[in-house]
What does this fold into?
Amino acid sequence: MKKVGILGAGQLGCMLADSLFKFGAEVYFYDTHKNAPGAFRTPHFFCGEWNDKEQLTAFFSACDVVTYEFENVSVELLDSIVQNTRTPLYPSAKVLEVTQNRISEKNFLLENNLPVCQFTPIFNKIDLQNAFQSTFFPCILKTATGGYDGKGQWKLNSIDEAKSLMPQIISEEKFPLILEEFIPIYKEVSCVIARNKKGETAQFPVFENEHRNHILYQTLLPAEISKEVEAQVQKIAKEACHKLNVTGLLTTEFFISQKNKIYVNEFAPRPHNSAHITNIACSISQFDMFARILLDIPISNSVLHQNFYCMGNILGDIYIKQGHSKNLNLNSWNQNPDIIEIRLYGKERAVEKRKMGHFIAVHNSRNNAIAAAEKLRKDLDAPN
Ligand code: ADP
Ligand code: MG
It folds into this structure.
């Protein structure tokens, strides 16, 4: 039985583990939290910090292959452990090196002639002042590393706003940063490409994503985009996957501008929140696809079933009312027949904006799928 290690025992790791179990693999988890959602799914749970070389080395040594559910682990450390233990890491540390830093990610796009917005790398106070003097407003300032779900980013509407943010950025030493032009977005979409060790790829349909407060609110399938845009998005995503030499999954997030221009926003070399919709909507889910790659099982394109699908995130916010925690009202599920999956991740504590779960609605029209999702959100939030 193949032993697959996953760095991070959150929801992505758990759903990947479910798929690995389906194919008869053994799963090993590593996480810093002893009560992480995956901690109780397998007898093979390693608890340690992300910089604990000894513990990480023991973990790699116990596994036949290792992957990760998030990107903020030291590339140098991982690389040296891979060299020492000879346990392969998929996707490789080289891929992480490019994708975990917004500056190297955008430089990669430039070097490979892939479409990217205008950006300025910022390494110190002088760079920051210069960037603010020469930029157009609105623009978006982001930390180069460590940001997710909109954390570590600021939308700036004017030079005055930019100036008043400066003291905080400098005192909290947020460098390196990147300043991006603000794209007037018509649609956000994402595309997952799977690539195996032989360099063969398989694709998923393109997902349409709606963000609120910089966090994914819902994903829709099929996306309301032209066949041409869909083909172009898949072509760019595939090219990036080959150029980065990914073994595993590469998710590419895109902006389609109001002028119908396509921009790559960012990459995630792992399963992606938007692709949870494939659990129900497609012939092969993203987690099954990834499991197949890790276990050397052949892959093929994942195709969309009939119907319209809407995947919605359940954030910590609805567990919290007037500062107190409350339960979700799951009694209402029987009045929501169009909901075919509600998955709660088993996190210990609800925190505002923390992803606690997701659900998937299905209907024979797009508007009805969206309406079913809205109704469930309301019902979950209703008093028990
Ligand atoms: P994260 O790592 O938090 O997902 P993103 O760079 O994807 O960071 O930003 C989160 C969201 O913020 C995007 O999905 C988009 O809605 C908005 N956003 C980010 N950058 C830009 C930009 N340059 N122009 C317009 N909107 C943006
Ligand atoms: Mg993003």
Notes: Residues 253, 266 surround magnesium ion (ligand 2) (CB under 6 Å).
